[in-house]
């Protein structure tokens, strides 16, 4: 089973629709050996479907509500995301956990719903600075991992993203050794649930062209989830070519 290599871009609430289209058009991925996945804002998805196909990039969505339709004012239906060409759903990003109070229970419901409805998922986990300083980081991350996953899930539909909260958007990156150490712990837990799985584990948190190669060369780091640097075509391309 060959290891999957993945670079995922998370645009968060950035770019206008016009800027988003221009950005995708500008990204040139000739000879990239990695699978490329991007999560634009939901407002942009419908307009981006064609551009993503042309560029062989997988379209993802940053958020959804785990119901097909109904009285959920302001929420996003996964079925309409599918209509827009979305294949992968981002679940558990630290900004959704902290700013929008998404609980472990809600995240589990989202994972179940997404997988039952044929989506791939990118499940994010990561400790905050306090957890790291008090030495509880492994415990916290593994608890987040295990509270979301279920042995009944199809492991081939899952990507894990380890994103230490203290490294997100701060310019401070986990060292390659810190990333490798945590990825190895995560890998061990995944092996217990699904022996011989091929689940990619991505690192996220201030990945840039200057540090991507070293991070991606670690044994258990299968790629990255990129925020800020995914908003610039040249930086994103350089990261996609960092394997
Ligand atoms: P960053 O964001 O690359 O800007 O640190 C990563 C993320 O939030 O996924």
How is this structure best described in words?
By secondary structure, the protein is α/β, with parallel strands linked by helices. The protein is 40% helix and 15% strand. It has helices spanning 17-26, 45-54, 78-83, 94-99, 104-116, 129-133, 137-148, 176-193, 209-216, 233-240, and strands at residues 6-10, 35-39, 58-61, 88-91, 120-125, 158-162, 201-204, 223-226. Strands 1-2-3-4-5-6-7-8 form an eight-stranded parallel barrel, surrounded by six helices. It is globular, with a radius of gyration of 17 Å. The model has no long low-confidence stretch (mean pLDDT 96). 2-phosphoglycolic acid is lined by residues 10, 163, 168-169, 204-207, 225-229.
- Terminal Cα separation, in Å? 18 Å
- Strand tally is 8
The shape, in one word, is globular
Hetero groups in this structure are: 2-phosphoglycolic acid
Please provide the ordered H/E string of secondary-structure elements: EHEHEHEHHEHHEHEHEH
Tally of separate helices: 10
Note the main sheet: 8 strands, parallel, barrel
**Relative helix content:** 25-40%
Structural class: alpha/beta
Poorly predicted tracts of residues: none
Question: Compute the gyration radius: what is it?
Answer: 17 Å
Q: Give, in spatial order, the strands making up the sheet with the most strands.
A: 1-2-3-4-5-6-7-8
Q: What is the strand content? A: 15-25%
| Mean pLDDT over the residues | 96
């Amino acid at each position: 089973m060959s290891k999957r290599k993945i670079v995922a871009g998370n645009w968060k609430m950035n770019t206008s629709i016009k800027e988003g289209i221009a950005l995708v058009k500008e990204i040139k991925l000739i000879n990239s050996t990695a699978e490329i996945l991007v999560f634009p804002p939901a407002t942009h998805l419908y307009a981006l479907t064609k551009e993503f196909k042309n560029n062989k990039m997988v379209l993802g969505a940053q958020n959804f509500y785990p119901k097909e339709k109904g009285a959920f004012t302001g929420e996003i239906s996964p079925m309409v995301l599918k209509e827009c060409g979305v294949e992968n759903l981002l679940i558990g990003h630290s900004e959704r956990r902290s700013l929008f109070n998404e609980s472990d229970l809600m995240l589990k419901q989202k994972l179940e719903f997404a997988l039952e409805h044929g989506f791939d998922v990118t499940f994010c986990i990561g400790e905050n600075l306090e957890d790291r300083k008090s030495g509880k980081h492994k415990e916290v991350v593994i608890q987040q991992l295990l509270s979301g996953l279920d042995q009944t899930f199809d492991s081939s539909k899952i990507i894990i993203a380890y994103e230490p909260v203290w490294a997100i958007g701060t310019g401070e990156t986990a060292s390659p050794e810190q990333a490798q150490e945590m990825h190895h712990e995560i890998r061990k837990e995944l092996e217990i649930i699904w022996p011989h799985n091929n689940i990619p584990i991505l690192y996220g948190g201030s990945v840039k062209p200057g540090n991507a190669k070293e991070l991606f060369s670690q044994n258990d780091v299968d790629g990255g989830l990129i925020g800020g640097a995914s908003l610039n075509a040249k930086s994103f391309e350089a990261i996609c070519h960092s394997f």
